């Protein structure tokens, strides 16, 4: 993960065509200003600031537990902020409940796929257009002509987005039957279906093989270049990050430790230290001894109790449903400070 040197970087200047698309879409900057998020005694984000310029691919990286997903969730209104603000043009996102963030032009794909496996690809993508539909439940149930027309229009748009993402052959296939890489595309299609100006992706390459990751890199660049959206990318895969990002912010222990273009980040000493430190932590003498003891126990030669955990696995703090640690914040009740 710390091998920054062998990867290529993109030209940080955005092409004229992309800039034109970004301007036509009216994409504002996203400004994260002095944001702090706390879970009980844990300061997961500590006075963090950075700006995602319109039409850029902006990566947020850092070792495990650095605060990336917390930042993602603070921007999308899932977690409340203790200090600071997040603004997107005129909208102060930190004052809005999560349910109103999409209508401000912020679309998110999920770190853990949140597709409905038994619904078709088209129906999953249509969910992303929910807030754009005017027809209410009753008019839809009555199948009034104008709601039928509206539904047809939304379906056509959803299908066009699927075509753009190269998944149109699966429109009527239940999402759960598709390979993982395709399901990730469906998730991104759903995020794009809300017609965002900022697309937020949390570890889109997780679980992908290298061919799928290469395809994803092309897709991310195509989405930015052809639609003109800004993209925030939380990602562990350094070759993906260095290959697509225009700008990178690095977090470590909740603090911003670096911010710059990929070539600056690759040479930044604090960043290299943070990643080397993380790798060294993973392979401590204690961990090695524990692993040997576990192997002996499994072979019947050791004295480790059955079921005792060995290793450095951590609970996934992104899995809000896991209940690990402090409970996820109810944006409705917690936003009032
Ligand atoms: N809901 C929560 N309750 C309690 N602590 C949390 C919660 N979410 C995150 N944390 C803690 O906040 C810190 C930052 O976690 P976060 O998930 O943001 O890190 P991350 O950079 O996304 O890590 P990873 O690379 O493993 O996904 C960690 O110490 C984590 O344990
Ligand atoms: Mg995370």
From TrEMBL:
**Gene Ontology terms: cellular component:** plasma membrane
Q: Name one Pfam family in it.
A: ABC_tran
User: Do you know which InterPro entries this protein is assigned to?
Assistant: AAA+_ATPase (IPR003593), ABC_AA/LPS_Transport (IPR051120), ABC_transporter-like_ATP-bd (IPR003439), BCA_ABC_TP_C (IPR032823), P-loop_NTPase (IPR027417)
Keywords on this record?
ATP-binding, Nucleotide-binding, Transport
Spell out the PROSITE patterns in the cross-references. Answer: ABC_TRANSPORTER_2
SMART domains, from UniProt?
A: AAA
Which residues belong to any copy of the ABC transporter domain? Answer: 30-278
**Lyase is among the record's keywords:** no
User: Can you provide one Gene Ontology molecular function annotated for this UniProt record?
Assistant: ATP hydrolysis activity
Asked if the record carries the keyword Transport, the reply is yes
Q: Segment Disordered: which positions?
A: 303-337
This one is known as ATP-binding cassette domain-containing protein
Q: Which organism is it from?
A: Epidermidibacterium keratini
Taxonomic placement: Bacteria, Bacillati, Actinomycetota, Actinomycetes, Sporichthyales
């Amino acid at each position: 993960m710390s091998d920054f040197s062998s990867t290529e970087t993109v030209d940080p200047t955005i092409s004229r065509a992309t800039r034109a698309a970004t301007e036509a879409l009216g994409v504002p900057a996203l400004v994260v200003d002095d944001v702090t998020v706390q879970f009980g005694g844990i300061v997961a984000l500590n006075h963090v600031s950075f700006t995602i310029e319109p039409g850029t691919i902006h990566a947020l990286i850092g070792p495990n537990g650095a605060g990336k997903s917390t930042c993602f969730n603070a921007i999308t209104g899932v977690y409340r902020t203790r200090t600071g603000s997040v603004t997107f043009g005129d909208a102060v996102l930190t004052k809005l409940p999560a349910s109103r963030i999409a209508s401000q032009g912020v679309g998110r794909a999920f770190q853990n796929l949140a597709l409905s496996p038994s619904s078709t690809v088209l129906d999953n993508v249509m969910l992303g257009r929910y807030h754009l539909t005017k027809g209410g439940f009753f008019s839809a149930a009555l199948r009034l002509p104008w709601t039928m027309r509206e539904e047809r229009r939304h379906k056509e748009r959803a299908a066009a987005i699927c075509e753009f993402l190269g998944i149109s052959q699966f429109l009527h296939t239940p999402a759960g039957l598709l390979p993982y890489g395709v399901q990730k595309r469906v998730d991104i299609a759903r995020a794009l279906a809300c017609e965002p100006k900022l697309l937020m992706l949390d570890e889109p390459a997780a679980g992908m093989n290298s061919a799928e990751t290469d395809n994803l890199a092309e897709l991310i660049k195509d989405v930015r270049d052809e639609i003109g959206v800004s993209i925030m990318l939380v990602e562990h895969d350094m070759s993906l990050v260095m290959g697509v990002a225009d700008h990178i912010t690095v977090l470590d222990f909740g603090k911003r430790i670096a911010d710059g273009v990929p070539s600056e980040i690759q040479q930044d000493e604090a960043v290299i230290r943070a990643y080397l430190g993380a790798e060294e932590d993973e392979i401590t003498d204690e961990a090695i001894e524990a692993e040997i003891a576990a192997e002996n126990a499994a072979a019947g030669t050791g004295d480790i109790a059955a079921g005792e955990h060995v290793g450095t696995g951590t609970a996934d703090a992104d899995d809000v449903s896991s209940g690990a640690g402090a409970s996820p914040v109810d944006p409705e009740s917690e936003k009032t400070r």
